[in-house]
Design goal:
By secondary structure, the chain is of the alpha/beta class. It is about 40% helix and about 15% strand. It has three domains: about 170 residues, Thiamin diphosphate (ThDP)-binding fold, Pyr/PP domains (Rossmann fold, 3-Layer(aba) Sandwich); about 160 residues, Rossmann fold (3-Layer(aba) Sandwich), CATH 3.40.50.1220; about 180 residues, Rossmann fold. Strand 1, helix 2 and strand 2 form a beta-alpha-beta unit. This is Decarboxylase. Belongs to the TPP enzyme family. InterPro entries: DHS-like_NAD/FAD-binding_dom, THDP-binding, Thiamin_PyroP_enz_cen_dom, Thiamin_PyroP_enz_TPP-bd_dom, TPP-bd_CS, TPP_enz, TPP_enzyme_TPP-bd.
């Protein structure tokens, strides 16, 4: 039936509002309660992508948001649909992802009597969303505008909307005057005495250091940081999600921190030697207990661009605003300066390079090295799943640009890499996307190979197959315990990839993996490269 034969419905107003906000894809699984909304999305030119699991759908939305900048959109049915999305919504909450969650809900007139699949949606999500609203016909556009503003107000996060079938299908009233301008933080005032004081402190310090986080990478602070370092070589450490804020091949880059005990032993020693630490768009949610109170005297610490909701570190001053703008204002007019005295930084760089150098001709290190070179040759965006391989990859990887590497680093859930890369690839079809997983993460998200195939996406999936939950096995060994509940059966992933309509290849050495990565980049559809490695590759090496 032609779209023109339909009246203008509440669902249409919501869908057109989301499209106007830059949303181009919706991810989820439909149920009877959201069929009208799914129809409205398609009429508004928002593509609905059928995922195999609602949590994976939320992560696809996160991947699309990371590369596209607009909020992600998750659509679920009531009850079990929304409940199955909880882990994905929690991931958006702790990863600071702007996400609109639209769930179907039973009609209000039935709620007091009818219990099938009925659960209190706002109560279910209350710890994980910035707000939860029920859409009403008279205020639908205003409700959406508010949801979008909340999702995009730092710290970004998910907002939930309940939409009943009758209201979705109801005729919309007069067009609402509500608009949704994107919030703009005021520019830093160069005359602000706090900035002037900090500029003077930076000038006077002998060992300043920048510890940068995801908000700095997302805000576009890379240019301002590079400009500051041109005037004075200040060492930079980032969280995992901020990798590439400074090209990690730069002499001032000490790479990423927070998850690897091997790296942290080197980096924490550098941090404690600093006499001024700038926390740039930094959120310690990515850090581990070893970073508790790990910074120098609080009088030496200044937070730029983040409002802290934690007690990990103390700081003498906090300047809130856009991290890129604050850093640019801080560096403006500053006189050139010298780097750290002595060879402390070069010694740290050499120690890190030695700690994560490939120890053998084949294994996890060698595979990650080949993936990195192939990805960067093609300008690819890479996602990595949780597990021992993520720690190793995040330390070995020399990111050349922000958001080159996507991962769940605050929530650290398994099963994230495949949907993150899929969402990114859908949002930017010309982008090469590569997902790197362990066998545990792949088996959690296997159904999304079907989503990948049906969506017509070209993507490379690399599985480092050690036949175990390697990180948990390491923790059991460290505690003096025997392994239990960590062995995996060694499935034939090559055959599974072909069963889902993709290509599968076994890569058991560097040369084969190198050749297959090149071939996969030229091939349409999904190519899964299974790389058999040993769990021992990670022992004492992460």
């Amino acid at each position: 039936m032609a779209a023109a034969s339909f009246p203008d419905r509440v669902a249409d107003r919501l869908a057109s509002g989301l499209r106007a906000a830059g949303v181009r894809h919706a991810f989820g699984m439909p149920g009877g309660e959201v069929v009208t909304f799914v129809d409205a999305l398609q009429r508004a030119d928002v593509r609905f992508v059928l995922a195999r699991n609602e949590t994976a759908a939320a992560m696809m939305a996160a991947g699309a948001s990371a590369v596209g900048g607009a909020p992600g959109l998750l659509v679920t049915t009531l009850g079990p649909g929304l409940a199955n999305a909880v882990n994905g919504v929690a991931d958006a909450w702790q990863e600071r992802t702007p996400l609109i969650v639209v769930s179907g809900v039973i009609e209000r007139a039935l709620r007091a009597r009818y219990t099938h699949q009925v659960v209190d949606h706002p109560a279910l999500l209350s710890p994980l969303v910035k707000a939860s609203f029920e859409v009403e016909p008279e205020s639908a556009e205003a409700c959406l505008a508010r949801a979008l503003r909340l999702a995009l107000t730092p710290p970004f996060g998910p907002v939930h909307l309940d939409l009943s079938p009758a209201i979705a299908a109801a005729a919309a009233g007069a067009a609402s005057p509500w608009t949704n301008p994107r919030a703009v933080r005021p520019r830093a005032d160069l005359a602000d005495p706090r900035l002037q004081d900090l500029r003077a402190r930076l000038q006077a310090s002998r060992r300043p250091l920048v510890l940068a986080g995801f908000d700095a990478a997302r805000s576009g602070a890379a240019d301002a940081l590079a400009a500051m370092i041109e005037r004075r070589p200040v060492p930079v450490i980032t969280t995992y999600k901020a990798k590439g804020l400074l090209d990690e091949r730069h002499a001032c880059s000490l790479g990423a921190a927070g998850l690897s005990p091997l790296a942290d032993r080197i980096l924490l020693d550098v941090v404690r030697r600093a006499d001024l630490v700038l926390l740039l768009g930094y959120d310690p949610i990515e850090m581990r207990p070893g970073w508790l109170d790990a910074l120098p005297d609080p009088q030496c610490v200044v937070a730029l661009g983040s409002s802290a909701d934690h007690a990990m570190h103390d700081a003498a001053a906090r300047l809130e605003g856009d991290p890129a703008d604050l850093l640019a204002a801080l560096a403006q007019g500053a006189a050139p300066g010298e780097g750290w005295p002595g060879r402390d930084l070069e010694a740290a760089r050499q120690a890190l390079a030695h700690a994560f150098a490939p120890p053998a001709a084949w294994g996890a290190h060698a595979a990650i090295d080949e993936i990195m070179h192939a990805a960067q040759a093609d300008g690819a965006t890479v996602s990595v799943d949780s597990g021992a391989h993520r720690i190793l990859l995040s330390q070995m990887w020399k990111a050349t640009r922000p958001l080159e590497l996507l991962q769940s680093a605050g929530w650290c859930t398994m099963g994230a890499a495949l949907p993150l890369a899929l969402g990114a690839a859908l949002e930017q079809p010309r982008l090469r996307a590569i997902a790197v997983l362990g066998d545990g993460g792949l088996e959690m998200s296997l159904g999304e190979l079907g989503t990948l195939h049906d969506a017509g996406v070209s993507m490379t999936v690399v599985v480092l197959q050690d036949r175990s939950l390697g990180l948990i096995a390491l923790k059991q060994a460290a505690a003096g315990l025997s392994p239990g509940g960590v062995a995996l059966g060694g499935a034939d992933y090559v055959a599974i990839a072909r069963a889902f309509g993709g290509q599968g290849r076994l890569c058991a050495d560097r040369i084969t993996l190198r050749e297959e990565l090149v071939a996969a980049g030229r091939r349409s559809g999904c190519t899964l490269l299974a790389c058999p490695i040993e769990a021992q590759d990670y022992v004492d090496r992460i």
